[in-house]
Design brief:
By secondary structure, the protein is of the alpha/beta class. The protein has seven helices and six strands; from the N terminus they run ααβααβαβββαβα. The longest helix has 24 residues. The chain binds S-adenosylmethionine.
């Protein structure tokens, strides 16, 4: 093993602050010169490999906690659900901060396409955008082009290896009707969101923060 510490010739007594400072500097100098040497570089690259392997291992196999958030879309809070707070962009900003802080392993957030330009800048820079496209959607008079897709902003998730099937960042599914709640998601969309994050039912948790009809929880739990 390559010595990373200076030899014992340095006095151990560090009580005198001046000696301490000098000592710290010499140690730093020694460490730097060791790390610059060929042995040091080899040592560092092995350490990095080790850390990368450990990270990969932890990232791939430890239990992960994910969340799906389907809050009222910006501007629809009061009108559709009686929660006016969601008509304020600040509420969405605060919510996204908390979502990100509480679920560092990964999360997905539904939004409407008109709100995307305002919601996206509130998200961390490493998010991706999935699209739920609706081959059948309600066409409103004088709304042309129709709003026939919804963004799903997502980040994190399990790393997948080459053997696992590639998940598309879009899902084509007709809207649900007569579920008793505007904005209820079809089962297939819930399953796609689970796949987007690569969540494993046998290991992970997946919290649905705005259950509504409870469809997401059923899809997550049913296929255990
Ligand atoms: C878009 S819907 C969720 C639909 C759900 N994903 C589904 O597929 O059935 C939003 C839900 O969040 C609820 N909600 C919104 N703001 C809330 C709040 N502050 N506290 C509790 N529930 C809230 C609404 O009542 C509504 O049921």
């Amino acid at each position: 093993m390559l010595p990373l510490r200076p030899p014992e010739k340095f006095p151990k007594n560090l009580q005198n602050p001046k000696i301490g400072t000098r000592l710290k500097r010499s140690r730093l100098h020694y460490t730097k010169s060791v790390l610059r040497s060929a042995h040091g570089k080899l040592f560092l690259s092995r350490r990095l490999d080790l850390l990368r392997d450990r990270h990969h291992h932890q990232h791939s196999w430890r239990k992960m906690n994910f969340a799906y958030a389907d809050p009222p879309y910006l501007g629809q809070g009061k009108k559709l659900y009686g929660y006016a707070m969601w008509d304020d962009l600040n509420t969405h900003g605060e919510f996204i901060k908390r979502l990100h802080a509480h679920f560092p392993d990964g999360w997905a957030l539904s939004a409407s396409s008109p709100s995307l330009p305002k919601i996206l800048p509130l998200c961390p820079p490493d998010v991706r955008i999935g699209a739920w496209v609706k081959p059948f959607a309600v066409f409103k008079p004088n709304v042309n082009p129709a709003y026939a897709w919804e963004p799903v902003i997502f980040r994190g998730g399990r790393k997948r290896d080459r053997k696992q099937p590639t998940v598309r960042d879009w899902c084509s599914q007709v809207i649900t009707l007569k579920k008793g709640l505007t904005g209820a998601k079809p089962e297939q969309v819930c399953e796609w969101i689970i796949q987007l994050l690569g969540a494993r039912r046998d290991e992970d948790t997946f919290k649905d923060i705005f259950p509504g009809t409870g469809v997401f929880g059923r899809v997550w739990g049913n296929s255990k």
